[in-house]
Specification:
By secondary structure, the protein is mostly helical. The chain has helices spanning about 10-25, 40-45, 75-90; strands at about 1-5, 55, 65, 70. Strand 3 (about 65) and strand 4 (about 70) form a beta hairpin. The protein is globular, with a radius of gyration of 14 Å. The two termini are about 25 Å apart.
Amino acid sequence: MLGDCYGRSCHPALTRFVGECFRDMGYAPAYNDPYAGGYCTRHYGQPDQHVHTLQIEINRALYMEEETLTPHRGFTILRDQMSSLIEKFHQFDGSPLE
């Protein structure tokens, strides 16, 4: 789930970029539902000042046994996917944000 306070805390182009990255990983991200963003997202996000905050909620069942809170093999997969997402941020030139 991606929460950008309905576009108030993160430029929609950046939210779309992250959503596309998740779709490329095989996920189907929801937007602002059930969470549109918490205090940090609302408080710190100022896209007009080029400060973007995006809440990312990840289903725990993808990476841990919820009953025991023990990571399973999905943890390594998700860790590698999140590392890839961070690398893609470095490649994102921001041109759609202007």
